[in-house]
Every structure is written in structure tokens, then in C-alpha cells.
Amino acid sequence: MRKRHLTYPVSSRQALAATAEEKPIRFSSLFWNYFQFWPIIFVSTLIGGVGAFLYLRYTSPKYSATIKVLIRDETSSGQISEATVFEDLGLISRSGNIENEMEVLQSVQLMRQVVSNLGLEHRYIHIGSIRDVDVYTQAPFRIAQWRAADSILDPWPIFTVSVRDTIGFAVQWGGKSYEGRFGESCRMPMGTLRLSRRTAAPVTSFRDDFRVILRSNDAAAAAFAGGLIVKSIGKRSTVLEVSLNDEVQDRARDVLNELARVYDQSNLGEKNKIYVNTIAFIDERLEKLIAELSDVESEVERRKSGHSVFDLSLEAPLLREETRDYNRSVSDAEIQLDIIRNIRNFLDRDPEHFDFIPSNVGINNLTLTGMLEQFNRLLLERQQAASMLGPSNPQLKAMDDQLATLRTNIKRNMDGLERDLSATRNILSGKNQALQRKLKGLPGQERALIEVQRQQSIKENL
What we know:
Elements: H1 12-19, H2 27-35, H3 38-58, E1 63-70, H4 82-88, H5 97-105, H6 108-118, E2 123-126, E3 133-134, E4 141-148, E5 158-163, E6 168-173, E7 176-181, E8 185-188, E9 191-197, E10 209-213, H7 217-226, E11 228-232, E12 239-246, H8 249-307, H9 315-348, H10 366-386, H11 394-439, H12 444-461
């Protein structure tokens, strides 16, 4: 009986693995395999090295400066609100205040002030034997005045200044040279140039050549603003990171520091408009009250001196205390009515335009105070947006509609408050009648003096 031999299929990969023999790696043969290409490797390495050397030698380095700006949110108390929870869930988006401030920081309008403050309109390039270097404030001179000729096509040309010594210089432009002296006007076909000498510059720089790039304030501001990178450092953070790359490290740092300062001043200047209107509002009212108080005080003095009324009867101190409580209540109502009426007059001065409403003037109603703050805050955002958007932008139109609606609601709220205060004053008038009946029992001079003192107290409170 024959035995059967069972055979099983073997994959080609397994068969190859079974027959293949492991060979050790021979580094000597590997080296000689690649050594035959040594000319190509040598030339490639040489070209790469020379290219890297020339690039590092002749290319101006770029420096990066960074600052962080805190955007204060006056509407936030620092507590985790419901809006924060919904924001984490992705159901609502963060307020556009941060995005608006990012646009303001990158705006050309803000950068114009930075350029003007630092004198960055023009650039001074030192012409060297190896590479040209932007010297920023290290140039031995600066442009004190430039007035382009009417016939020149480009009012902001580029020319070369060769510094002869600490007194004179020469300007090369259009293949011609024009001599000049520091502090004096140098007249050329392209315009009139006046250079001022920088005494703090290195003495050796007074024998060098410089390329001067003239620019307008708008052109320089647009160049710096275009190089700004503004980003938020966190999802719920109100801190913005502002970066700028520049060939001169000091200039990048100076631009960012000045930008932060100008930004703060801009915010303060816009917010101060509210306080300026508030102060004017108070001063206008004080002028009238001081005159009225002066008349009342003169009357008190006249009655005391003319009738020798110094000591009142025993009943008078009790009436004086009761009168003081009444005066306090009347003063509170009169003050609130006076403030509301003056704010209404302020709103009605120019119905076609919006202006910051005086705030923090002693209004006791929290609803009205909140509406006034909301109006001023919205108007501030509107003015900031107007500096970046065109006058016919739909976003500005929407803000104008919101301001108009809010102003109408403020007037309606003041109507209701005025009715309530008038009713309170009517109730107080009944108390005044009872007080007057008690005063009739006093001698005439004492009664008259207490009445005048009552008016004096009300005016002082106002």
C-alpha cells in the first residue's frame, strides 16, 4: 500500500523568504558604490555652501518684535456668564468687540499718528561695500523739509546723499550732483531739500553715502500697517498679540510701543468726549444755581443783620429739623427732575446727529443710567468703525438705526420718570402746607428766616 504525501500551497512571498539568504551589509562596497559620483557631490556641496554664505552676507536680516495689548471689556465683571457657557458649546459666537479692536490696531489711520510721532516717513539706507543697511536713527542727518517741484512727476523720489563732513553734503539724482549745507535749503530741479545734522550720530558716518527714500505719511503708514500681525492669544481672552517684522530691531520695537501708546490715547480721547459733555452739562447748570444761591444767602444775611434774629424760640428748632427732612426730600425730587429736563434738552439740540450723552450726573434710576451708558458705548463703536469703513457702509447705517431707536427709548423712559417725580413732588407739597401752618405760629421774623433758610438748603443740595 502506497503512502500519500500531502502537499500544501505555499505563497510566493513565503517561498522567496525560505530560499533567500541573509547577506551582511558591507560598508566598504557601499562606500565605493557612491564614491564614483564624488565630483557631483563635491560640486553640489560647494555651490550650496557658497550660496548660503552669500545669502547670509548680502541679505539684510529680519527681526520680529511682539507686544501684548489688553482690551478692557467694561461690560464684563470677570464672572463666568451664561453667554460664556453657550460660547463653549458653540451655540453663540464671541462678541465682535475683540475683532473690532484688532481692525483698529491694524488701521492706517492709527499708524499715521505713529509714523508722524516717530518721524518714520523717510528711510535712510547706508550704502556699504558688502550690503546696504537701513540705519534708522543712526544716519548723520535727517530730512527737515522737502518740497517737491510742480514739474516733477514723482513727488517722492529716491536719491543719494554723500556726506562730505559735518558741514556739507552732496545730492546725486538724475546723473547730476548738487551741493548743500546742513540746516540750509538746497534747491534742485526736483524740489527744495533741507537736511538737519544729527549730533548724536557716529563721527565716522559723516564721510559715507546714503540712499534716501522719500515717502508720504500715508505711504509709510500703509507699509507699516500692512506688516502688522494681530491675533488673540485665547478663546475667551481679551489680550491681543501684536507682531511686526522689520530690518531694524529698534524700529520694530519703537513702532509697537508707540502704537500701543497711540491706541490708548485714542481710546481715552474718544471716551473723554463723554466726560467733556458731562462737565459742560454740570457747569451750565452750576452757573445758574450759584447765582440763585448767592441771592438767597444775601437774603439770609440781610434778615439776620437787619432784625437781629440770632436765637429762635423753643419751638423753632423742632420746626427747623422737620424743615430739614422736607428740604432733603424736595431736593432729591428737584435734582432728578432738573437732570432729566437738561438731558432732554441736550438730546433735542440736534436731532439729526448723535453726540455723547452726559452720564454719571447723579441719576438714581438704574434703567436710565444703563441706557445712557449703552448709547455712549454704541456711539463709540460707531465712531471707531467709521474710521475704517466708508460713509455709505451698511454696518454704519445699521448702527445709526440702533442709535436712533435707543435715543427714542431714552426719551420715553425719561417721560415716565418725570411723571413719577412730579407725583412725588405733589405729595411733598401737601406736607409743605402742614409745615406752613406750623410756621404761622412763630413770630414773623423767625418765620421769614426759616423760610429763607429752607430755600438756601434746597439750592445748596442742588
